[in-house]
Amino acid sequence: MRAAKGNLVRRVVFACLFLVFTTVYPYIAWVNNPNENVRTYMTMALVEQHTLSLEEVLKRHGWTNDMALVSPKVPRIAFRDLFSRETLRLSRAEPPPGWFDPAHSTHYSVKGPAVSFMGVPVYWAYTKIAPLFGRNVPTLTSPPEERITWLRTSTFVLRLFVVALPCFFFLVWLERRLRKVSPDETLRLAAVVTVGVGTNYLAYSLMYVSHSLFAVAAFVPFILLLDEWRTRRFAKDRRLSIAFISGFFATLTTLLEYHAFPVTALLCLIGAIVFYRPTRLLAFGFGAALNVIFLMTFQWLSFGNPLTPGHKMMENPSFASVHAHGLFGMERPDLTAFTQISWSKSFGFFPLSPFMVLGFGAVVFGLLLARGTRADRWHSRRLVFFSLLAMGALWITVSAAHAWRGGWTIGPRYLGAAPPFFALLALIALETFAGDSHFRRWTARAIAGGLALTSVLVSGTLSMLYNSLPEPIGRPIPIFAIPALRAGFVPHHAGEWVGLDGTTFFYVIYAALVLAAFLVAFRRANDRWPSYLGRSITTALVAASALSVSFSPLDRAPARPVVIEGRDPVLDETDGANDAAGLFKNWEPVGRDRVAAARLEAERYGSHGPCAWYRLADLQRIVHWETDATISESKAGASRSGCN
Fold this sequence. Notes:
Layout: H1 2-23, E1 24-25, H2 34-48, H3 55-61, E2 67-70, H4 85-92, E3 106-109, H5 114-118, H6 120-129, H7 144-178, H8 185-197, H9 201-205, H10 211-231, H11 240-256, H12 261-274, H13 278-303, H14 317-323, H15 335-343, H16 349-352, H17 362-368, H18 374-399, H19 418-434, H20 438-465, H21 476-487, E4 492-493, H22 504-521, H23 529-547, H24 577-585, H25 594-605, H26 610-622, H27 626-634
Antiparallel strand pairs: 1-4, 2-3
């Protein structure tokens, strides 16, 4: 009976997560997020023009950033010289003087090309199916509204089938894999739900970008390699299929994101240790080589050199100058950057996902106090050691980048691979700490549930509302998320496709998000009622304590300026209220929020309905429109005293 109840809870949780991953589409065309748009443009160019050049798509859909401007003056390596010493020298050289020539150059995407290529069959299918519903691929002469709508709907389709669905099914796979780490479903679901909707994994699963797929591509070979090491003692028994798959995914991480190279290198090192026999090593190397060849071919065709990404040739000279420093914008690690991507209350990985702090406990409970048989203890130590090594390499790489903040983001998007690794570490620490003690397991469940709930309420809420917050929004929950929920500024959602154009459908999806977190945090498991009541109270107290961080005053520690943005990421004294107000002013979809409805009501009654103007002013103040609120109050023409 208890097993059946456990299965029911797990199924309901995953049903809620599926709803969240597939029905919400945060999108504001005004922001024109280049992180996503340039990938969409490249997919469109590949399907429609069969080229990597973005010129025709740019003419149709307008400008975006994150492109390389490749001039004819930039040396192109001949095929016979692909592996020569000259190729290596030119990959490290500066572009020649006068290379920046917009009139005679070609634009290419500078992003890791994997996502854009993964979207090709999806977008091709969409171009064939869309005409059945009266929507055709627009041309340069199509009305602007048609071109805007096509870009938006194409982006939604690509998000869903290329990113959101694979990222959701990874969570299902992750939960099954973590059963080997912990048989405690409460702890395990807390870890999985936090990965899925309690970090910025959700934000970038709802965009046509690579950051969440980076987590998938990195964690899959990591687990496969270490499981093979654990379960098959002799190298001759280790499977060729696992060797090939692990090698393929190991290098796919860099094909998704260039800065993932250190993680790729570590995965290849583990692969060499596990599959050291010639046949297994050959299978691993063959899988890895496919993506290496693909990436080098893309760079050769786009930028003229198989060893050169396009960052030094970015279309904006100021952006290009950033990446001209060091190795494509990577220099010595910066301690301030390291600290802020970790602990900043505005965008740090751990304050926005406090459950992940438990991962540090694995240093003690995974390395020093590992339990079980000798083989189990060594497996636990390998998991912890290599996880920490991978995360250390990732953190150091990001902190060495000039553009470490990552622009408009939810959390540090360059740390995309971190959620599953830290969740694994946290689960190892929790399970080892709990052991055979009822009290310690009671404590572990209370702490894990409370921190998972907070992580979902913070990161999950932000991710569902909008996944590209401006940098100056220092306290995103009180300054942005709560005002948005109160005033009805909610994103596009799947209900619009079936005539449910209002805000209600979004709040149903948001309720599913919260329900998943509550089911995990307050799952009874096998506790007796007095014990369960005490644990529930403790869980709530832990959640409230962790949530208070999002409402606390900001630290004003100095930070290294983000050159690519032209300003210091230290937040202003208003905590970014003006930037949040600007975001609400340009919100999509337009006109279905409570402010718009209140304005229509106030204008209908005019001076005969002063209370309607005061209600409008109150809503405008919620979203930081102080000037508009003052004007609305002036139109009331009577005292507020008679209004409720």
